[in-house]
Amino acid sequence: MTDSEPKESAATPVPGGEPVAAPPPETIPASPEVAAAPEASPTGPHWGTGRRKTAVARVRLIPGDGKFLINHRPVEQYFPLLRDQQDAVAPLELAGVRRNWDVLVNVNGGGVSGQAGAVRLGVARAVIKAYGQHEFALRDAGFLTRDSRKVERKKYGRRKARRRFQFSKR
């Protein structure tokens, strides 16, 4: 480390007050809400399938250190918008197991928003298979409800599904 680089401190800033030193990691008690990383399942990884509009996501949860890959790319690179990134990882954050699992997702079809919703549903279903006790919290947050809305088909004699051609009286 050179003299020009800032030194990292163990102090955590508190809004409107003095920085407070964080306790060493081994003294922080484990929260009862946060589940520990399970051993590898004898049946293999936990799978979940999510669908939204025309997007389909196949999700695998594997015990690991928190990698989240969508089509072999990190979630931050695949979804450029922060809203979509947060949407994809929300079920893991709610269950408190984000750093315990590697998430591998194959998603295709639809657009960016539909794919983010499909990934969210697939991850939520996979978390339920790994941790059944989180089902009610995920259901209350709306992560296990399939959004069945799709684009309405175009009808003949119209410009779009419901839009008519412009009418000319003369």
Plain-language structure description:
The chain contains four helices and seven strands. The chain is an alpha+beta fold. The chain has a domain at 54-143: Ribosomal Protein S5, domain 2. The strands form two sheets. A five-stranded mixed β-sheet has the order 3-4-7-5-6. The protein has a two-stranded antiparallel sheet with strand order 1-2. Helix 2 (82-95) runs parallel beside helix 3 (112-130). 25% of the residues are buried.
What does the average pLDDT come to? 83
CATH class term of the domain at 54-143: Alpha Beta
CATH topology of the domain at 54-143: Ribosomal Protein S5, domain 2
C-alpha Rg, in Å?
22 Å
| Shape annotation | elongated
How many beta-strand elements? 7
Contiguous low-pLDDT stretches (5 residues minimum) are 27-32
Q: Give the helix proportion (percent range).
A: 25-40%
The CATH level-2 architecture of the domain at 54-143 is identified as 2-Layer Sandwich
